[in-house]
Amino acid sequence: xxFLINIPIAIVNNIGxxxxxxxxxxxxxxxxxxxxxxxxxxxxxxxxCIFQCLGLxxxxxxxxxxxxxxxxxxxxxxxxxxxxxSLFVQSPIxxxxxxxxxxxxxxxxxxxxxxxxFYQLTVL
Length: 124
Description:
124 residues; mainly alpha; 4 helices; elongated
């Protein structure tokens, strides 16, 4: 029963993780629709299923081992900082802000795409 207190942490981590995976899926789907990538619908479906399974595994891992997610994030940020030290200042917060800006740009592009699709529906 000790894992019940980890449910909010796991939910927040899982929402962020699935949001990033959803962005990857939407970008891949957009590239496929514009025929930049030659992908079949079955591949996109398999990709979405794999992303859902990854989200489930990540949720269960964070639920039972919450310190694991914190260790993984700090370890990956430290390895990124040491490998590309000249790109950003030696601080993990700069990597997080870069990822957040990239996420916001993709999100805004997808919102514009959705608004344009709704506009096309109203024109019909």
